Amino acid sequence: MNNIALITGATSGFGKAIAERFAAERWNLILTGRRKDRLDALEQQLRDEFGIAVTTLNFDVRSLEECTSHLEQLSHEWRAVDVLINNAGLALGRESFVEGSIEQWNTMIDTNIKGLLYISKIVAPWMMERKRGTIINIGSIAGKDAYAGGNVYGASKAAVDMLTRNMRIDLLPHGVRVGQIAPGAAETEFSIVRFSGDEQKAAATYHGFEPLIAPDIADAAWFMASRPAHVCINDMVIMPTAQANATSFHKE
Ligand code: NDP
Ligand code: 8X3
To answer: Which of 92, 107, 156, 244 is disulfide-compatible with 248, CB 3.0–4.6 A?
Structure first.
């Protein structure tokens, strides 16, 4: 059987591009997300184009019950996950925390931190049993560097950064490697979600410079996953050339 990657949040942006990249390398895929129509379309596209096997799981990573029931329904064959990519996540709002919505905070914390933990707690033992595997967490420059209005989103990604380092220690005796990709500004649906569907405001985020695009991150994920077994890429910070850190942009 081909290698297997499990990618959360595969309905859009980085997750979809990572699915396409791994499919092109003839990996079989487990793809998750809440939008079933998109999962179904991607499954069909990847099967037709690359002839790989695809399993889709339609659930919300914020729910431990849903994570458990969907992942536990995978057969023994599909549990042989070689690479887990914890990608599902989002930002909501860019106000000062004083003006922030507690509901939005909960959504970010439940998705970006707790969802990642729930999925990893279920999948890591499958890797431990096989004494190999790779977990790639999608963090952010926002987890390393503060910016105005980044507050809870940044804190959730700082948690991803720290969890990545701790998970690597916990899984060290088991031959499972754990790394992070921390991107800067990338044009996906991220800002449309962040600004509650306001496409103009979302597009303005990328005015005057060339942002990253999803395949840039897919290339990085593939690079990490395809290193020889004795090599672990701990952390990759990937920025647009026009962005030096969370706040310094060269705009024309
Ligand atoms: P998109 O909005 O394009 O994709 C986000 C993906 O996450 C979607 O597939 C969405 O699927 C999934 N998702 C969100 N919430 C949930 C949930 N509760 N349960 C299951 N799936 C969920 O954004 P990106 O591709 O840009 O974002 C991917 C990751 O990259 C996120 O973790 C984000 O924080 C991070 N990131 C993004 C950057 C950027 O500038 N774009 C930079 C740095 C990091 P669905 O809605 O169908 O459930
Ligand atoms: C997304 C990048 O800088 O908009 O994580 O927060 S940023």
So the answer is: 244
d(Cα 100, Cα 224) in Å, to the nearest integer? 36
Residue 157 alpha carbon, nearest atom of ligand 2: 5
pLDDT digits (tens, 9 = 90+) for 162-201: 999 999 999 999 999 999 999 999 999 999 999 999 999 9
Q: 252 lies in a domain?
A: no
Domain that holds residue 223: 4-238
For residue 188, how far is its CA from the centre of ligand 1 (angstroms)?
9
For the question of whether the overall pTM of this predicted structure is more than 0.90, the answer is yes
User: Which residues are registered as beta bridge partners of 55?
Assistant: 30
In a domain, 174, yes or no: yes
User: Residue 29's closest CA among 8, 48, 60?
Assistant: 8
What is the rounded distance in angstroms from the CA atom of residue 50 to the CA atom of residue 23? Answer: 6
Rounded-to-integer distance, Cα 32 and Cα 5, Å: 11
Q: What atom in ligand 1 is closest to the CA of residue 188? A: 3
